[in-house]
Model the fold of this input.
Amino acid sequence: MKIGVISDTHIPEKSDYLPSTILDAFRSVDMIVHAGDMVGLGVIAELEKVCPKVIGVSGNMDDAAVREKYPVKQILNIGGLKIGIMHGWGAPSSLIDILKNAFKEDNCDVIIFGHSHKPMNESIGGTLFFNPGSATDEAAPHNSYGIIEINNGINARIIKI
Done:
């Protein structure tokens, strides 16, 4: 299973569209996960053109239509692994603790999140914390997205645009 991971696209606030590099990369994935702050549903329609299976969660900047369609938290079971998805909130310095607390009863192997616009691909206490960064925000350290492959284990990487 190959999963394209994106977050904090903030369309149309930060950009009018997703970078074509991401759309091209996501043509070869089995699923796309958007970890919130899409702002409006237009980005989902754009992603569904390249991959019909798009999973998402709502973030703190998302409009009512996004919050109505997507929950704040989701858990997927893929290849025998539990993958938690949540945008996150609060100060970036507290984000990992907030996520740990939100998923403390779920025993996740991977937690996909966003909010900080800062990429992260780090195992903490046996759980992989994966933030693809922001694909569109000029204030991010760099624009990026992620790919997670699940085949007898987890191979996760951040790709700079």
In short: DSSP finds four helices and ten strands in the chain. The first strand starts at residue 2 and ends at 6.
